[in-house]
Amino acid sequence: MSIKIKNFVFLFIILLFVFWILNLTCYAQPVSSTDLIKHANSYDGKMMVYEGEVIGDVMRRGDFAWVNVSDGQNAMSIWMKSVFADEIKYMGSYKSIGDGLEITGIFNRACPEHGGDLDIHAQVVRKIGSGRLLNERPNIDKKNLAIILLGLLGLIWILSLLKRK
Amino acid sequence: MILKPRLEDIKIIGYYLGRIIIGLGLTMLIPVIVGIGFKEINPTLDFLIATEITLIFGLLFTRLFYTEKDLNWMQGMIVVSLTWLVAMVLGAIPLYLSGHWKSFLDTCFDTMSGFATTGLTLVQNLDHLSYTHNLWRHLIMFIGGQGIVIVALSLFVKGASGAFKMYVGEARDERILPNVVQTSRFIWLVSIVYLVLGTLALGVVGILDGMKPVNSFFHGACIFMAAFDTGGFAPQSQNILYYHSFVYEIVTITIMILGAINFKLHYHIWMGNRREIRKNIETITLFIAIMITFVITAVGLAQTGIYPRAIMLFRKGFYQLVSGHTGTGFQTIYATQFINDWNHLALFGIICAMALGGAVCSTTGAIKMLRIGIIFKALLEDTKRIILPEGAIIVQKFHHIKEVFLEDKAARAALMITLCYLVLYILGAIIGMFFGYPFLESLFESTSAAANVGLSCGITAVSMPAALKLTYIFQMWAGRLEFMSIFVLIGFFVAIIKGK
Fold first, then answer.
1. Selecting from 3.30.70.920, 2.40.50.140, 3.10.310.10, 2.40.110.10, what CATH number does the domain A26-133 have?
2. In chain B, is it the N or the C terminus that has fewer CB atoms within a 10 Å radius of its CB?
3. Which site among B45, B249, B336, B339 would you substitute to test the A interface, given the most A Cβ atoms closer than 10 Å to its Cβ?
4. Mutate to test the interface with B, among A67, A90, A117 (most CBs of B within 10 A)
5. Which residue of B has its CA nearest to A54?
6. What does the pLDDT look like over B264-274, one tens digit per residue?
7. What is the reported pTM?
8. Is A65 helix (H, G, I), strand (E, B) or coil?
9. Predicted ipTM?
10. Do A139 and B241 touch (CB under 8 A)?
């Protein structure tokens, strides 16, 4: 009899756990930044997936780091462990395209830990794309235009000096 | 009878405009140097092209309209109002060439926003913009904050009497030193000293917060220019939220408040007269206004329950409020959060703060504290007049550097400008509503544009109608110049058409 009760209690706990897991919604598909900001209230405290390009600096704060990730619409603030940040090689800027990251984490509409910031606390970070340095080539049209305008400017300047004389 | 402007008027206006354009062209050489330093080839070419075009225009104007005559009041006002439009167009050239703006109108919107120290922006993919272009975005705030004409006055004008007319035309009617050119140079001295100190402070905080040293000091310089000149642009799309730093926010709050203080008051503080801070009508009014508007905003935010802790309320509520009140427009929240997460009362508090602004003869826009103080004193005087016996002599005074008797003329002028601003705020809101935006959002964005603030609730976007972009450009221009120069310009065009 006591074994039956024990089994029943065990089953009950398992069921409770399953219900809790089901209740804790996880968005398996990546959510856009616009959607996150617009519907912040409904995503608040939920586990979700976000994807984008690392931009700017990786700002290390002790064992953690702030990484700003842009999905092309907005940049979102990701709070992640330094070990995840160590994987980042390229950050998006004028001269480079940043690494692509897939972040699975908890979204905060107004994070109590970070003074009310709208952020994502990363649980898992996966690198989904490698960034690269951009090779800047001079634009020939711009170069030619600059030379022509320089000539024109010099001509006007000389003419104005002659007129003054 | 309206007199048709003479050819001589146009010559004088054209000549002084040309000189200021040359000044603008020379300032474009700063990004050229930065571009070379950072080895950014195409951005450097963008600025070379823009510098050349600007200098060509400047040279043509000064040669074609050459004159040795000085400016009169009308000409001075027109030079100022036209300068801002010409600077908007010429200053937009290098930005447009970068390909980060969808249209030339969008670029003009951003340059007017920069020069007028507003901070509303239509830039695309800001996080990949070059250092060179980013510097220019912030430099135009620095130039615009001091006043474009002041730049020219400090560099090219040597004691010309017409200088004062342009100085007044640019909404600065207070002379710090007896000579207006000396005043301009003092304004630059203050700004440069603070620029060095502010950049150092922000640079060090940035490094401590984990930024790379080069980025940290570059951002420091840009953020300083935007904060001190109460502009609001930032090098990254997330604005101040990018830094995730309480200390960074404290430093920027300090710089924003310094920028919102009258340059005359800066002068007295520098001269050791620190008591003036506590006595001056502007600082007292500013303190009271910040407190009242913060209480309104805080109550509103408390009703929403979004920021339950004091630190959250400070970093989100108070920061946005000070940013709005000083006319800066820095944000630590996303634009649409104002609408999605804040309630109407909190928004109302921010709108009031934006509408009031900082001190006169500072880099802020909006109605300004001296006028609010004077109107309040005038109201007090009239109330006393009603209460006290008819024979009683009532004298109302206020302290602004010295004790000043409140005259009807000053009260009338303060009320007139206040009325103009209120009309401008409401006009923009009505136009926004014509395009289908709700009243409160339209009023928020309109006030932000006209008061040269730059906080956005999301209306300012590339997709907004062109007519609304033009409306905001006009509001930023009119709000920055405080109307008089624009009224004179309109009168000038009317005189050309209808004059005899």
1. 2.40.50.140
2. N
3. B45
4. A117
5. B127
6. 888 888 888 88
7. 0.90
8. strand
9. 0.86
10. no
